[in-house]
TrEMBL record:
It catalyses: heme b + 2 H(+) = protoporphyrin IX + Fe(2+); Fe-coproporphyrin III + 2 H(+) = coproporphyrin III + Fe(2+). It is an enzyme of class 4 (lyase). The gene is hemH. This is Ferrochelatase. Catalyzes the ferrous insertion into protoporphyrin IX. Its main location: cytoplasm. Pfam families: Ferrochelatase. Pathway: Porphyrin-containing compound metabolism; protoheme biosynthesis; protoheme from protoporphyrin-IX: step 1/1. The lineage of its organism: Bacteria, Pseudomonadati, Nitrospinota/Tectimicrobiota group, Nitrospinota, Nitrospinia. InterPro entries: Ferrochelatase (IPR001015), Ferrochelatase_C (IPR033644), Ferrochelatase_N (IPR033659). GO terms for molecular function: lyase activity. Keywords: Cytoplasm, Heme biosynthesis, Iron, Lyase, Metal-binding, Porphyrin biosynthesis. It comes from Nitrospina watsonii. Its EC number is 4.98.1.1. It comes from the Bacteria.
């Protein structure tokens, strides 16, 4: 890192994450936070509780995000003490305002906030930005210079990190006798209205990630899908993963590699939606389903986070 950028300046990096409950008892309050204060129905609470129970009763999201923050702080500092990395969750603890307050108490000279979803969307990044701005106000931290990293879908080390995960999965499939397989890229689906109105660039952001990976690791055949359509009754971005699996089965495909590129760590949408839900669905269609390992604390991914921070400071 260029000394002129960091010298004597204490930089607080705040990783903004979704947040997930660590106990099923917290699910009603967690869902209420996601829905901006509106309580969910008993059926929705039961459905989500069953999914958490199926993955062992809690999400590993907090623990993994803490590991990412610790690794990033070590990587950025390289033995110095210039950067502190905090985590702030939008929907669960530690909340974004707790992270901002801690950074203020630690005397950070500037803050840089990075949303742990590489592709910008009004349904994710913009909500994190609003929560971050509210937190600055609540903590009277408005006089600290801040930068917000809105989008980093093709940060070079992020693409390297995903490509590394793909190559590992490809070797595994080939070792298991699957010389040909269908790769299905996924990101979280969102209600399609803002995309159709041209005010949410999420699809283009997704394509930046996907095209960056395909330039590094040629693959055929591949598919672009949207997973985990939510419970709001409205049109969601498609094709869904289920529809994509139907088409692959009809074409006579045998093995499928799900490649989730919108999430950077294991959590319910990976461990339940893919590993349990889509795997069962695929089996019913006569397909064998695999998935790439999540980035979690991959060293290349930590470099990507550091790269995004440096690019914005430089
Ligand atoms: C770009 C879009 C989204 C990302 C990335 C995302 C990540 C993410 N979501 C959860 C857990 C839940 N999300 C839920 C609802 C929900 N999520 C999105 C979009 C993204 N989520 C939308 C549009 C919605 C519906 C609208 C809303 O209710 O606000 C829910 C509630 C249950 C449900 O509707 O499915 C949960 C739980 C995690 C853990 C996560 C990334 C780590
Ligand atoms: Fe979500
Ligand atoms: Fe979801």
């Amino acid at each position: 890192m260029d000394d002129a950028i960091t010298q004597g300046v204490k930089t607080g990096v705040i990783l903004l994450a979704h947040g997930a409950p660590t106990r099923v008892a917290d699910i009603p309050e967690y869902l209420q936070r996601i829905r901006g204060g509106t309580a969910s129905s008993t059926e929705v609470i039961r459905e989500i509780t069953e999914r958490y129970e199926a993955i062992g009763g809690s999400s590993p999201l907090l623990e993994i995000t803490q590991g990412q923050a610790e690794a990033l702080e070590r990587f950025l500092n390289q033995g110095e003490d210039t950067f502190r990395v905090y985590i702030g969750m939008r929907n669960w603890y530690p909340l974004i305002e707790e992270a901002v307050q801690q950074a203020k108490d630690d005397g950070m000279d500037r803050l840089i906030a990075l949303c742990l979803a590489p592709q910008f969307s009004k349904w994710s990044t913009e909500r994190y930005l609003n929560s971050f701005n509210e937190a600055l106000g609540k903590c009277n931290a408005g006089d600290i210079p801040v930068q917000f990293i809105k989008s980093w879908p093709n940060q070079p080390s992020l693409i390297d990190a995903f490509a590394e995960r793909y190559r590992a999965a490809e070797s595994d499939l080939k070792a298991k006798g699957h010389d040909t397989f269908h790769t299905v890229f996924t990101v979280h689906s969102i209600p399609s209205a803002y995309v159709e109105e041209g005010i949410d660039p999420y699809v283009q952001e997704y394509e930046k990630t996907l095209n960056g990976i395909r330039q590094q690791v040629p693959m055929e055949p591949w598919h672009q899908a949207y997973q985990s359509q939510g419970m709001i009754p409205c049109p969601w971005l498609e094709p869904s993963v289920e529809e994509t699996l139907d088409n692959i089965a009809e074409e006579g495909g045998k093995a499928v590699l799900i490649f989730p590129v919108g999430f950077v760590c294991d959590h319910i949408e990976i461990l339940y939606d893919i590993d349990i839900g889509f795997r069962e669905y695929a089996e019913q269609k006569g397909l064998t389903l695999f998935r790439t390992e999540s980035l979690n604390t991959s060293p290349l991914f930590i470099e990507a986070l550091a790269g995004a921070v440096w690019e914005h400071l430089a």
